Amino acid sequence: MNGTAPQPLLSVRDLRMHFPGRRARSAPVRAVDGVSFDVAAGETLGLVGESGCGKSTTGRMIVRLLEPTSGTIAYEGQDISRLSRRELRPVRKDLQMVFQDPHSSLNPRQTVARVIADPLLAHGSSESAARTRAAELMDLVGLIPEHMDRYPHEFSGGQAQRIGIARALALDPKLVVADEPVSALDVSVQAQIVNLMERLQKELGLAYLFIAHDLSVVKRVCDRVAVMYLGRVVEIGAKERVYAAPAHPYTQALLSAVPLPDPAAERTRERITLLGDPPSPAAPPPGCAFHPRCGRAQAVCRTEAPVLRAVATGERREVACHFPGAEPAASRMGG
Ligand SMILES: Nc1ncnc2c1ncn2[C@@H]1O[C@H](COP(=O)(O)OP(=O)(O)O)[C@@H](O)[C@H]1O
Ligand code: SF4
Ligand SMILES: [Mg+2]
Questions:
Q1: Which domains does the chain have, with CATH numbers?
Q2: Fewer Cβ within 10 Å of end Cβ, the chain: N or C?
């Protein structure tokens, strides 16, 4: 901790979500198992990892759609993880979420005006003020305000995601958790939505927790990136460092799957294929949970869980690995 650093906007510490097992005596699902990170005002933290590693659960706890099993979520210094609905009200408007599938997250029976105005009405706006604001928001996200009385199914996927973004912005949030906001969209539309989110961030000073399952999507947008594996953060740091010199074998494997823009480099790109599927979060392997898939694993990896720590003094990047380093253990990781 740096005594002179400003207080982060969001500070998550040792956050856990253990869902009850499917049967009465089965082990709980450790969807999120001790996650810590900060998000500063106006910055973007990318949160990446394979499907099922706990990204959505983390995002949903932060906006309090889910109550954490344990840990703290400090927003502007106040722990909001245990607040009641009523106590949460003044904070709720600052923390909003954009969902992966725009159409299924919009009520099909409500007009777009109503969808966007809903949070405003819930916070005491008059009908006419909410409608005026909805028109402004549509304009802000690149939709035609005259279309406000249409229904969500009349819009394309990309337009529907703009509606979801407009709704998230209705209450002037400071932090938006964007849960794979472009994963369900056509590739041609993805860049437009990413551009829109970047523009809105600059204009409105928003902070984003930008969730994605691979590192290519967040490469442009994020300032820092956190890589999750089986409910934990295994590497976190400045984007430039993590992309240029990933230190965790899992980050190296994820990065090796990202195509390179330079055709010559792309032809010789070394791909690290991960062995097998991720283990179940109901029965995580002992020690380092990545050890059954790691080509660098030693005996200690099977018994001792590595904790997140700085790779080098002075570097603001942390890695949870007993043998962190630049060596891309490609040949030993199968493929
Ligand atoms: N409501 C729930 N009840 C039980 N298990 C859940 C629930 N929600 C998510 N999970 C499990 O928690 C793990 C993490 O899920 P999720 O956070 O959705 O991962 P991601 O978003 O990274 O794909 C998965 O194994 C998933 O099956
Ligand atoms: S702790 Fe061991 S098993 Fe885990 S990632 Fe590092 S080298 Fe691999
Ligand atoms: Mg998810």
A1: 10-20+28-94+173-260 (3.40.50.300)
A2: N
